[in-house]
Amino acid sequence: MPVANSIAAAADQLREWRQDFHRHPELGYEEHRTSKVIAERLHEMGFDAVETGIGGTGVVGVLHGRNGPGDEARSIMLRADMDALPIHELNDIAHKSQTEGTMHACGHDGHVTMLLGGAQHLARTRAFEGSVYFCFQPAEEGGAGAKAMIEDGLFERFPCSAVYGMHNWPGAPVGSFHCRSGPLMAASDEFTIRLKGRGGHAAKPDTCIDPVPCGAAIVQALQTVVARRVNPISPAVVTVTTFQAGDAFNVIPETALLGGTVRSFDSALHTQIYAHIERIVYQVAAAHDIEASVERSEKFYPETVNDAEATAFSLAVAREVAGAENVHDGVEPTMGSEDFSYYALKKPACFMLIGNGESAGLHHPRYDFNDEGTVWGASYWSALVEKALPVG
Ligand SMILES: [Zn+2]
Ligand SMILES: [Zn+2]
Questions:
Q1: Could you give the number of structural domains in the chain?
Q2: How much is the pLDDT for 1?
Q3: pLDDT over threshold 60, residue 179
Q4: pTM over 0.85
């Protein structure tokens, strides 16, 4: 079962759809045009139901197999994310973003199109028994759209036995698939540190309480959290990414603001790491006579953990589509994060990576989804449904 013939025949149409999404990128929870176009396409395909406005701009298309709806055990969910990024596109291409400062730099335009390609094929053939929920999710890029859809009753309204997702992977050949059982992507959250001293003239530091050396000492001390406090067998990252203070060369600022991210493959470890961060910040600040606060953002993404059985199954499907030589089990986990993790907390789930060829990296202003990969992704989705819900 390599690339399905009807999907190969639809390649030009899928390219057009993908490039249209690329021209019209929308940020998280603002995917109004995108979700409208998706819903229209699903209606045109003859879907049994199309529900919109789930978790904000989310869309779920419902497709039943040849013997009508399936129960929870005979239903699965396939998920694609829809949102773009606040990046100014530097590609000089005909389908360049028409929205200044917004760009599909993570290939979610391609994810939507691959899922629509699979949907179109399956709506024609209905070569399965049960129900498939095609989930088009808002706000993956930091907005936790997956969580929003789940909190809006996703799994009560569309009960299913497993959830599958896919992300394109720059640097891996087109038509190749990569996965692993267990943790694939990291848990991630953000912190903000506020420091308050007493500003004044740069020539009179003795009359001020300068937050800048205090901030510098905190940045240095935070390097010891992972190096000295986390079990070396558990990968973790604490990175300070922003340090803002002052506006003039001759003024000691009143305040300083530091921000950063924590990553690991163990949500529980984050709680321990935060305890270390707080201890260091408060005590270093106290030593500098500075008032400090540490804020942990609500925007937490848990680690993405692939279910062993769902992963073995997904890899078997990928081998049928792409050939065993193009399917790689045991891919190295990445410190990137994904809100697909929220589905995986609720249901057996597998997140697959699909080759995007030698493109620029994800989130790069010259990135573009590789249209050559679409037929592979759409065929994977179709084969996955036909194999998960076989006609009896
Ligand atoms: Zn991204
Ligand atoms: Zn992405």
A1: 2
A2: 55
A3: yes
A4: yes
Choosing from 272, 296, 320, the residue where a domain stops is 296
Domain closes at, from 280, 296, 312: 296
* Residue 131 Cα to ligand 2 middle (Å): 26
Mean pLDDT of 56-83: 97
Give the model's pLDDT for residue 212.
Answer: 98
| pLDDT exceeds 60 at position 47 | yes
Q: How far is the CA of 212 from the centre of ligand 2 (A)?
A: 36
State the SS3 of the chain: CCCCHHHHHCHHHHHHHHHHHHHCCCCCCCCHHHHHHHHHHHHHCCCCEEEEEECCCEEEEEEEECCECCCHHHEEEEEEECCCECCCCCCCCCCCCCCCCCECCCCHHHHHHHHHHHHHHHHHHCCCCCEEEEEEECCCCCCCHHHHHHHCCHHHHCCCCEEEEEEEECCCCCCCEEECCEEEECEEEEEEEEEECECEECCCHHHCECHHHHHHHHHHHHHHHHHHHCCCCCCEEEEEEEEEECCCCCEECCEEEEEEEEEECCHHHHHHHHHHHHHHHHHHHHHCCCEEEEEECCCCECCEEECHHHHHHHHHHHHHHHCHHHEEECCCCECCCCCCHHHHHHCCEEEEEEECCCCCCCCCCCCCCCHHHHHHHHHHHHHHHHHHCCCC
* Cα–ligand 2 centroid distance for 228 (angstroms): 32
Q: Is the domain of 158 the same as that of 13?
A: yes
Per-chain residues with Cβ under 5 A from ion ligand 2:
106
Here the CATH number for the domain that contains residue 137 is 3.40.630.10
pLDDT in tens, 217-249: 999 999 999 999 999 999 999 999 999 999 999
Ligand 2 centroid, distance to 80 Cα (angstroms): 10
